[in-house]
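Figure 3 (text version): structure tokens given as input.
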């Protein structure tokens, strides 16, 4: 058991974070060519077990489920497995050795469909020299090995470059184009960065959802194309070569950090918190949650309990607002609660399970609100009287503070 010491606030300096898309941003890789070749190769590897047509149709259907996923429960891998393997009537354990072999022997052969981008390598190295943290914000629809291989094809091997995060389907719960995907990146990194920017080539996947959170973005596109689609004044568009100058200008005059105040941003933060906790708390044994001190005031378990308490009080406040939903849906029934509770990770820990339950209830209630209802006033036992949008903004801010504390403790010398 590690020795327990007190975390000292401020022991980690806040830095700027740059999020980079991978395919057709850091690596020339046209998915319209790559994806059919990938599916053909995987179908060939599995042909003794399943017909290519059935394999491809089932895989694409399972992938679409990931794209549409909005619940923070279960990783993308777990969600994919529950759709794909029952769909082909073959247990995962029977196919996993063949799939593992595919990624060792066959997937590397797809490298000739891609090309590294020297200007991207220079941009990464320049950003690191400027003291920035870098996260690879690639759509987490591939397993870790496939993503790491594509990084190596870009001559950006993860062993050489100190990326603070690379999103893959084993550890993420949302994917592009959901703003919750970007919130989950920041949450897994403990909301510790003072300023964040995003660089990518796809408007719908990279630029629009990042700007929804208030993150300035650089859209890799034809320099002759108008940048009037950009919603934030700090955002821009142009070539990969010119992106370096944009990064330097953003660091020289970063402006205010994202406020996460618009309703879609608030909802993204609220969805990302249980997802990030599920990933972060896998690092330690559950019995340590009640023993590791945060700020010498409370434990990890107590921090999570505080989030659950805020949610429960908020749920009571929401009951004061008559629901006239823009999206009518049946109430969260006891059967639904029971089903979702059975899906909770860390079921043996009542603290986290209770928080997941309260957060799902809050998300469900908020999803029913019309635009006008967000602006209605209500009384919250903790935050007092204010509009519902302002109160949920306070909840999202509490989420970020608690996650920051937990992240800093998990990355301190307490666990070493």
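Below: residues designed for each position.
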């Amino acid at each position: 058991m590690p020795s327990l010491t007190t975390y000292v606030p401020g022991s980690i300096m806040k830095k700027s974070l740059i999020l980079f898309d991978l395919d057709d941003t850091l690596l020339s890789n046209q998915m319209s060519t790559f994806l059919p070749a990938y599916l053909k190769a995987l179908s060939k590897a599995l042909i003794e077990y399943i017909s290519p047509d059935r394999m491809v149709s089932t895989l694409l259907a399972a992938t679409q489920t990931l794209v549409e996923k909005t619940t923070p429960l279960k990783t993308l891998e777990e969600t994919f497995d529950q759709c794909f393997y029952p769909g082909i009537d073959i247990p995962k354990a029977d196919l996993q050795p063949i799939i593992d072999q595919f990624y060792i022997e066959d997937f590397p052969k797809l490298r000739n469909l891609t090309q590294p981008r020297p200007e991207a390598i220079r941009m990464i190295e320049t950003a690191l020299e400027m003291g920035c943290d870098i996260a690879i914000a690639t759509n987490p629809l591939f397993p870790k090995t496939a993503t790491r291989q594509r990084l190596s094809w870009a001559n950006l091997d993860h062993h050489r470059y100190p990326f603070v995060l690379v999103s893959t389907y084993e550890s993420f719960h949302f994917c592009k184009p959901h703003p919750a995907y970007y919130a989950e990146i920041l949450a897994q990194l403990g909301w510790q960065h003072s300023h964040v920017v995003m660089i990518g080539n796809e408007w719908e996947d990279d630029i629009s959802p990042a700007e929804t959170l208030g993150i300035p973005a650089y859209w890799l596109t034809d320099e002759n194309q108008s940048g009037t689609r950009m919603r934030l004044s700090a955002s821009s568009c142009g070539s990969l070569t010119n992106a370096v100058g944009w990064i330097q200008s953003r660091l020289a005059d970063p402006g205010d950090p994202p406020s996460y105040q618009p309703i879609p941003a608030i909802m993204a933060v609220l969805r990302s918190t249980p997802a990030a906790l599920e990933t972060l708390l896998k690092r330690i044994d559950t019995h340590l949650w009640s023993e590791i001190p945060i700020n010498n005031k409370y434990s990890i378990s107590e921090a999570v309990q505080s989030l659950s308490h805020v949610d429960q009080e908020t749920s009571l406040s929401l009951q004061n607002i008559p629901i006239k939903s823009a999206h009518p849906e049946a109430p969260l029934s006891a059967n639904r609660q029971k089903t979702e509770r059975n899906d909770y990770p860390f079921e043996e820990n009542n603290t986290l399970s209770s928080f997941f339950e309260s957060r799902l209830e809050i998300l469900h209630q908020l999803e029913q609100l019309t635009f006008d209802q967000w602006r209605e006033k209500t009384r919250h036992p903790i935050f007092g009287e204010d509009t519902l949008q302002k109160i949920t903004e306070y909840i999202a801010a509490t989420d970020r503070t608690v996650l920051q504390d937990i992240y800093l403790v998990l990355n301190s010398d307490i666990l070493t």
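Residues 1-13, 324-339 have pLDDT under 50 and may be disordered.
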